[in-house]
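PROTEIN DESIGN WORKSHEET
SECTION A - STRUCTURE
LENGTH: 420
TOKENS:
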């Protein structure tokens, strides 16, 4: 086995391969157990396999840990990981704990932990990356950092006590929204709420959009009304409407009243339609321009980083007004077509008016058939007088057509290693 010091925060997200080079998953955490007279021993990794299921990979099944990748024997227990008594996850539970330096130089917070293999083949925590309290009163200042061996510190909390939610949020900062949602759902319920309360509104909104509705409601119910409204403001209108539709009428109206008026109006519009119709599944915020707008203007709007990829695939051209519900829909200009024309070209000159929009009352199944038949990722949605009221994308339809528990359903067992 390749021997080197590996910091756990950098190991998170690394790919896990079998001996022939096939990717089997990615690292989500490192599992340790405490010992009385020695540094905590590493017993395995938590890895995420296809199906977003987190499973346990015994450290004995790991043949190499190098920068950016982990090599395993290929034998993986595909049972869902459940921590046992005495087991501690480094990212989820250990980072953020307070320690005191035995040399008397004060206290510090654990920001990372290095694991290393000894000559007997055993992996353990060998070094901690610590941050001491700040000495500068500036709100932007941070405390000095230092490294320390495990033997040079003493924990100020009992083993097994939770780390600060703030530190756990920092370890989640680079996760994709779907991975963040999975990581949150893997935490105990109270811990999940603590972390949700620390997450920025935008990040929590992204995570909620990737969760089953029951879990969305459970988290929203534990947030204060003002915070809940702020998070709903950051969600896509269709996702916010789906979530609010699960709440009692009184709380729904209370939260809508606290939301930004423009965002609330979009959500109210969507709530008027049935959940299995194009109107109920669409977003009210597609890219809308006039026929006199240029290719350059359209491409500038498409470049916005917050825009969903499916909605960036096309621009909808209408008569004024240019906010939903707009004037009459004139047609669509696809992103790929824009690339074939000079920046000054008018959108009206390259309009695709052959694409039939769908009615707000069209069923999800009907929309799915149209998307599949014409190889599209989005469709315009119009009202009875042909005004554009929104756009529906392929991911909106998939969310509806897939089973309710598709986000959490286990993948089929393929390889069984045996009980841990």
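SECTION B - SEQUENCE
RESIDUE ASSIGNMENT:
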């Amino acid at each position: 086995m390749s021997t080197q010091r590996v910091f756990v925060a950098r190991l998170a997200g690394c790919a896990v391969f079998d001996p022939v080079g096939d990717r089997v998953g990615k690292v989500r955490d490192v599992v340790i157990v405490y010992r009385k007279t020695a540094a905590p021993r590493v017993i395995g990794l938590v890895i995420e396999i296809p199906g977003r299921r987190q499973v346990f990979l015994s450290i004995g099944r790991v043949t190499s840990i190098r920068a950016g990748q982990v090599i395993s024997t290929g034998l993986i227990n595909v049972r869902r990981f459940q921590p046992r008594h005495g087991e501690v996850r480094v990212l989820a539970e250990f980072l953020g704990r307070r320690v005191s330096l035995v040399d008397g130089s004060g206290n510090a917070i654990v920001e990372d932990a290095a694991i290393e293999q000894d000559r007997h083949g055993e992996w353990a925590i060998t070094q901690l990356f610590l941050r001491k309290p700040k000495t500068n009163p500036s709100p932007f200042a941070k405390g000095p950092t230092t490294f320390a061996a495990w033997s040079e510190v003493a924990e100020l909390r009992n083993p097994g006590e939770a780390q600060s939610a703030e530190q756990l949020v920092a370890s989640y900062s680079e996760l994709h929204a779907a991975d963040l949602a999975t990581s949150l759902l893997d935490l105990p319920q109270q811990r999940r709420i603590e972390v949700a309360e620390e997450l920025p509104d935008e990040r929590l909104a992204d995570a909620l959009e990737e969760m089953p509705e029951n879990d969305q409601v459970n988290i929203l119910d534990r947030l204060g009304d003002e915070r809940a409204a702020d998070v709903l403001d950051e969600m896509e209108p269709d996702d916010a409407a789906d979530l609010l539709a699960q709440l009692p009428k009184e709380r729904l109206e209370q939260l809508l009243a606290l939301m930004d008026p423009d965002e609330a109006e979009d959500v109210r519009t969507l709530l008027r339609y049935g959940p299995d119709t194009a109107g109920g599944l669409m977003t009210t915020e597609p890219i809308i321009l006039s026929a006199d707008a240029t290719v350059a203007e359209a491409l500038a709007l498409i470049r916005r980083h917050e825009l969903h990829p499916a909605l960036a695939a096309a621009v909808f051209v209408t008569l004024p007004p240019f906010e939903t519900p707009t004037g009459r829909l004139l047609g669509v200009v696809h992103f790929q077509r824009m690339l074939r024309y000079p920046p000054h070209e008018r959108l009206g000159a390259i309009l695709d008016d052959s694409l039939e929009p769908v009615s707000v009352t069209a069923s999800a199944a009907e929309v799915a058939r149209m998307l599949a038949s014409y190889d599209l990722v989005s469709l315009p949605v119009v009202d009875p007088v042909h005004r554009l009221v929104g756009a529906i994308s392929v991911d909106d339809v998939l969310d509806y057509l897939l089973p309710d528990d598709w986000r959490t359903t286990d993948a089929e067992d393929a390889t069984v290693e045996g009980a841990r």
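SECTION C - NOTES
The chain is about 30% helix and 25% strand.
The mean pLDDT is 85.
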